User: Fold these one by one.
Assistant:
Number 1:
Amino acid sequence: MARNVVQFQKGLSEPAYEQQYGTEEQCRAMVIASRWPHGFECPACGATRHCVVTTRNLYQCAKCRRQTSPIAGTIFASTHLPLQLWFRAIYHLTQTKQGISSIELGRRLGVTQTTAWKMKHKLKQVMLERDATKRLNGRVEIDDAYLGGERSGGKRGRGAPGKTPFVAAVETTEEGKPVRLKLRRVTSFCATSIAGFAKRSLDPDCFVVSDGLQCFASVADAGCAHQVVKTGSGPKAARTPAFKWVNTALGNIKAAITGTYRAINSKHVPRYLAEFEYRFNRRYDLAAMIPRLAWAAVRTTPMPYRLLKLAEVYA
Ligand SMILES: [Zn+2]
């Protein structure tokens, strides 16, 4: 039997990780290369000539004398933690299929759970913003789902209290192989929120397949074609070939979230979904996720901790 290429794909082993990112110097070099891929450029005057104040890890512009830290204005500056620890957090967040709880991350990094939570959510926010504007195209399987409740059995749990509704959409090839995933929390499964989702997340050329929940007809508002495939209800519905990948992704998300986290605060659901989506969409190159996330992190304006705790993101 052919092995599942994703399941058996090699990530970066711990020894290989240590060799590439094990020292503060290696991590710093990685951040500097991400921030200034064509060499230093002064943020004040644009000059490139500079010297490095090695004792303080600062770049000093030769023209205007301004000193710049390579991590200034990035998530890495917010905690006064060594970059080594940030990179380890990136390693755990990107190389584990199930995600990692802040308690476990804190234990592995030797920091408090609160610090680990902060690091993790800042990184997840980077993941969320990185993929927010990318749209799916081609054939798309779409389904409604909830976190914090079961939808098996006769009653599908739609609209039940305490559950956070979200849309799962998988772009597939013509032959039905999965390409990319989109997971977005919605206020509810009504025509307005699905139309909003479709406009933000689907290209107008999409051919959307759904099980006929009425609100999904609103993908037409974004110019998408829509086909209804009736599935019935119960366990049989989950095996309908038309929805193979959206069902597989949903199964994996629920297993990961119930296995790793005791509970997820509904206001943070978008970031948990973003983390899963980010990993899924880069699943063919696990090792590359480390430099890619570091690269994105130096380019994303950090969300302050205060807002991170409050954030009600519907992106
Ligand atoms: Zn300057």
Number 2:
Amino acid sequence: MNLGLNRFAILVACATFFLIIAGALVTSNDAGLATPDWPLSNGQFLPRMVGNLFWEHGHRMVATTVGLLTIVLAVYIRLKEKRQWVWKLGMFALVAVIAQGLLGGLTVKLMLPLAVSTAHATLAQLFFCTTVSLAVFTSRSWIEARPLPPEEKGSLPLRYLCTAALVTIFLQLILGATLRHSATWDRHLPVQLVLAHIGGALAVTIALGSAALTVLRRYKDESFLAGPAVVALVLLVIQLFLGVAAYLTRLASPNEPQPLNPMIAITVAHVACGALVFVTTIVLTLRTYRVLPGEKVQSSAFELSGRQAKA
Ligand code: HEM
Ligand code: HEM
């Protein structure tokens, strides 16, 4: 295990979270077209950061920093990491951040079309998920993890429950992004999409709630699994409250002269907390795959260790 590499991967993941907040601030302040220019801003590399340009150009600067950090991370992995699949994931992160930068430029050039802005919001979550996974794979707890006692025969394996929760959350993030980019602050949100997103919230609550509670029932003393399960449950409750609050403040926003607080703060917090729910579930899912191998592998691994103990 390389401590320096793991710390750097954690740094990149934290910087990506900050970048998601910076991006959400662009959308909530309706600052996406503060400059119609890209890659320069109003023909300049460093424009005066006034008005909405503060949010738009600020987001570009944070994105550039994260892009540079991702290049360093990919090289660092290449130099220090022996597992080839981790190299590949590092390269994937690099490709994703470049594609994300291009999508950001494209959405400005095309004047924020729904499809491109939604794709930009969705790829942001996938990129965050990649950097968090790199931090997980390079961590000591991952490398030193040992198999846990098998789950009861006939029960639904936790790895499937967690994967189902993960997929449901991802679909909900796409729905949320479509909803958010369907109407600027001065318009009302489309009712069908709001209803679909509420249905999605119910699905996420059932899928993630049952996965996390099952983890706590079967492995409550194993902090490797119980830790992310508890965090995911807490974040889910906060996210549901933020969702209702985002809806209520959005209802009032078209009557206001410009995007105002608390609408900005609450919608940005809802995007950020959505990202945290997603990555916590990824950590939980990856860890179930790590310590609870499939039924066949599991029984043979345990039979083997049993035979070794007898010998
Ligand atoms: C490279 C990594 C990048 C990441 C991870 C990222 C992430 C994000 C996120 C999370 C949002 C908020 C989406 C939402 O609230 O629904 C956003 C919005 C935005 N980003 Fe980026 N971004 C990146 C690069 C860029 C670049 C290079 C540009 C260049 C112009 C850009 C332009 C924008 C614009 C204009 C918006 C607002 C879109 C709208 O309001 O419709 N982004 N970004
Ligand atoms: C676990 C449940 C939920 C998750 C994971 C979730 C996730 C998200 C995400 C990630 C976005 C923005 C996506 C983006 O632009 O990148 C969003 C937008 C939104 N969500 Fe949720 N959401 C959940 C529950 C709810 C609930 C219960 C409501 C209540 C009605 C709600 C109302 C909204 C609204 C109004 C927006 C648009 C905000 C805006 O226009 O700025 N969400 N959701």
